[in-house]
Automatic annotation (TrEMBL):
NCBIfam families: PRK07259.1 (NF005574), pyrD_sub1_fam (TIGR01037). This is Dihydroorotate dehydrogenase. The keyword Glycoprotein does not apply. Pfam families: DHO_dh. The keyword Flavoprotein applies. It catalyses: (S)-dihydroorotate + A = orotate + AH2. Belongs to the dihydroorotate dehydrogenase family. Type 1 subfamily. Substrate binds at residues 45, 69-73, 127, 192-193. Residues 4-285 form the Dihydroorotate dehydrogenase catalytic domain. It comes from Xylanibacter brevis. Keywords: Cytoplasm, Flavoprotein, FMN, Oxidoreductase, Pyrimidine biosynthesis. InterPro entries: Aldolase_TIM, DHO_dehydrogenase, DHOD_1B, Dihydroorotate_DH_1, Dihydroorotate_DH_1_2, Dihydroorotate_DH_cat, Dihydroorotate_DH_CS, Dihydroorotate_DH_I. Catalyzes the conversion of dihydroorotate to orotate.
Amino acid sequence: MADLKVNIGHLALKNPVMTASGTFGYGLEFADFIPLDGLGGFIVKGTTLKAREGNDYPRMAETPSGMLNCVGLQNKGVDYFCQHIYPQLKDINTNVIVNVSGSSPDDYAECASRIDALDNIPAIELNISCPNVKDGGMAFGVTCAGAESVVKAVRERYHKTLIVKLSPNVTNIADIARACEAQGADSVSLINTLMGMAIDIEKRRPVLSIGTGGLSGPAVKPVALRMVWQVARAVKIPVVGLGGIMNAHDAIEFLMAGATAIEIGTANFIDPSVTIKVRDGIDRWLDDHGCHSVREIIGCLD
Ligand SMILES: Cc1cc2nc3c(=O)[nH]c(=O)nc-3n(C[C@H](O)[C@H](O)[C@H](O)COP(=O)(O)O)c2cc1C
């Protein structure tokens, strides 16, 4: 067995495999399928300061090699999480990471500070693909200034490992990653979903209730891999890679592109035990190739 341990800032992971927010519920839903403590960590549903209903249905659509969603961050709010969900998660022997969303920098910071108070949540992942309500609804994560405003506000009030999740719907993702690093992010994760659309030609209407949605799954993998590679060369902080990872081969590609850890999203809907299979597949590949540690292949491209 190879050594699978990696570090994201001060966060120690027993292996590089985590789950992507919004595709793994609160983890507990998957406990019948996999040992949760066999993961490097899992990232729970997007959490906001106040409860959110999410968007109207339909909010999912299947696409060739992927899916579109416009769930819209449905959740019961951070206080509900702290009181009702956290007690069920706090004794699981892995890193439980909360994905935090908001509609203003203050919103994000307040939500993050409430999670800071929970002893057994060692990190948050900031979803900066949310619309900036006070500034015309454009997502924070699509400009350096928008990304900086959120990371700066959160960094002042959150003291543990801060992972910032980048939007791929930008011209130069390396610039956004550098802006987050400069404001004190401990790590960046990428990619969130790519903006897409599907149309019902009989109804002459978009399939999704709000017209557009986020594309995920194998269709986005080459784009995600390219962005991870670009960002890993642009920043000194560790990069977490995701987007379309379906198996160990895909995961190893992300590690070689420079990701220190990976997240698995859409694949969980197809096979709820995919994460453990990916972990074991990475281990087998390392053994077969005479590698003693997964760290030997991180960013190993010539
Ligand atoms: C149904 C669904 C809900 C999602 N919800 C969130 C969310 O709340 N916060 C977030 O940062 N990303 C969210 N995402 C994006 C995923 O975490 C991930 O970035 C994206 O799906 C790409 O990875 P994948 O191709 O492995 O699914 C969601 C994705 C899906 C499919």
